[in-house]
Amino acid sequence: MIPAQSMFCPECGAPTKNNQQEPTPAQVQQEQPRPLQNQVQYEQPVHQVAVSPANPKNMVTWKIVSGILSIVFSFVMFFQSCAVNALQNISREFGTGSEEEIGGSAGVLVALLMLAVGITSVVGRRSRGVNIAIMILCGIGMIFGFSMAGEYTDLIIWTCWLAVLFVMALIALLRFKKANGR
Fold first, then answer.
1. Rounded Cα–Cα distance for residues 77 and 83 (Å)
2. What residues contact 123, with CB distance under 8 A and at least 6 apart?
3. What stretches of the chain show up as alpha helix (H) in DSSP?
4. Where does the pLDDT of residue 49 fall: very low under 50, low under 70, confident under 90, or very high at 90 and above?
5. Domain boundaries, the chain
6. What is the pLDDT of residue 126?
7. How far is CA 64 from CA 4, 43, 69, 75, 87, in A?
């Protein structure tokens, strides 16, 4: 039994009906907003994900997509580089090719580095160390790709993809630092 003068229930702490006052008609009208004409009213607010540097979900999606693309590109680049390497060896046999041309061999090396970048990007999506590893692998690949392309000009295009991955890993690293306050 709840005493008549008590403001709260002794068992649960809820306010008692004796404590609650009936609202006046003016207060009821103030509490109920009037709906505007020809306006749709929603029961729940529309939720939108904010795109900000503190939201690392955007970079996780980029890492998955770029990792899968890098793996696919590395296989294409590997077979293309093997074909270029074979043609360069054939042209050397017939005396029409340059002895210093190593574009096909460099392409195989850059393809293996791109495969490592793709696997690293897909496997370790939410780590600061992964961004650093991607930047190192892309940097090594860019050095080999730009310096040893020679007549194999497609290698420069594949190396530009590594440059894009390098920049995106740098952006992801900076966002990670900003989101974690480091």
1. 10
2. 130
3. 25-31, 57-93, 103-123, 128-148, 154-180
4. very low
5. 57-180
6. 72
7. 65, 36, 9, 17, 35
